[in-house]
Task: structure prediction
Amino acid sequence: MYTRAWRNFKRMQDLTVALASLIYAGAGVHAVGRLPGGASTLMHWILLWPAIFLMVSLVAPLAVPVLRRGLAKYVWMSFQAGFGQTPGSIITGLCLLLGAALFIYWQITTVSATGVYRANVFSAYAAGIGILAAQAVLVRALERIPDVRKLIVERT
Result:
């Protein structure tokens, strides 16, 4: 029903959220035996605060009209630019996720070595996942806009 480009773009949005979530889960498991502090400290740093950041960054762009319009425009421009539709754009997206993963693992190593929590990279990463998830939701919202629909539905 939709053009191949739109299906690929939509799939890439979903896969990006899934891969980012898997990276987060892996980093959380990796951190449990390495970060200083008891179970309560780890729960706050790995689960509680990140969950709050994730929810805010997911809900705010969907609930606040000006943020929703801005993010929807960004999602549409990403589609028009070819994100998720070419091997180069897919590799670029994966490299960005890999860079974020390396950063979070590096932070775990730093905190493990120094015992000092400078910033909660788990919260920052969770906020990023929330924004990626909001983008995936907005892809489906864009499908319902008549002007967009005309451009993404295959003509028979």
Q: What stands out?
A: Residues 4-32 form the longest helix (29 residues). The mean pLDDT is 92.
